[in-house]
Structures are given as structure tokens and as C-alpha cells.
Amino acid sequence: MLNVLTHFIGPAERIITIEDAAELKLNHANVVTLEARPPNIEGQGVISIRDLVRNALRMRPDRIVVGECRGGEAFDMLAAMNTGHEGSLTTLHANSPREAMNRLETLVMLAGMDLPINVVRDHIAASLNLIVQQTRLSSGRRVISSITEICGLEGDRIQLQELFHARELDDGSVEFKGNGLFPQGFDAKRELLRSEWFSSYVHSAARP
Known about the structure:
alpha/beta, four-stranded parallel β-sheet, globular, Rossmann fold, 5 helices
């Protein structure tokens, strides 16, 4: 999914990818690929994802793409997104957009910064714009099952609004439907987007 999303990044942008094992294939002229390194037999020489994220901030990137956040690097990734690297991408495992927020809170705590939970949630809400959820169907097919916008913090809870959702039908096809909500984060660019894109239009993709 990250490979697909990176196709929409402008060709002039400088991208830095960070992975445990290099798998992303970006068709851009200005891409720097960083790969984590496990410790040697003596337990030395380890280079973690978190080390690479911190180093990437010194390499003048327009966007940072982290293959997957599994630990304290989530805090550094959020910091990058909130300090001039908008449009950066990463993935994590969760069963729903709401559970993704809960898991992200846990990962930020693993950074050892000892932050209050309300500060962590405010940091997440200020840094992220969209959650794109990919789901594996019973047939083994993977589809985009939800596109959800993060709408800030209300009280002590991160506010989410689902823009699109998909469900598998009895015949094996997938119904992908807009919820009729225009994303709040794009109000300033409303003239560049067509409101009908977000209407309750149903698109059914036949079973392959």
C-alpha cells in the first residue's frame, strides 16, 4: 500500500525511506533508502529504526516514509510530521482506525519520554491527518476498508470521522462507499476538490 501511495508524491520531492528490510520500490529520482541493521554476534553495531528516523531529519527530506512503526520510533515519526515534514507516511498494525490510535499511544509511550497521556494524544492529533486501513478478506484479497480523518482533540479523546468505508458482500464483491462528509482538514483547498468525491456514492468491485 505504501508503494501505491508514494506514486502520488511529486517527482521533485526528496524522499527518505526507512525499513527493517528494503522492500519499497519508489519511482522517484530523489530517493534515499535507509535500512536498519541488527546486532552482530557480539551484540554490537545495531542501527535501529529510531536511530534512522532521527538521522533522516538531518538529511533535508520533504517526506519520510517508514515501513512500519513498532516501538519508540513512533514518537520521532510524529515529531517529524509536526515539524515541517507533512505528507510523511508510515504503517502500523491494528484492527480499526480507533484501535490504531490506541496502539500509537502505546508505541509513543515506549519512547520513554514519560509524557502525560493527554499530551501524547494532543501530539498525535496535531501530527496526523488521515488513516488508510487495509483489510484482508476471507478470500485472501486485500482491500482498502476505511479512510478516516483525524479531526483534532476534544476533551481527552482524539476525534475521528470516517470518510469512506468498504464491506464485503455475500457474492464476494466489495462495496466501497463515501459517507457524505467533506474532510475538515481540506476546507482551505475546497476549490481544488470536488464535493461529489465524498458523497454517498457506492462503487462495487466484482470479485476477481
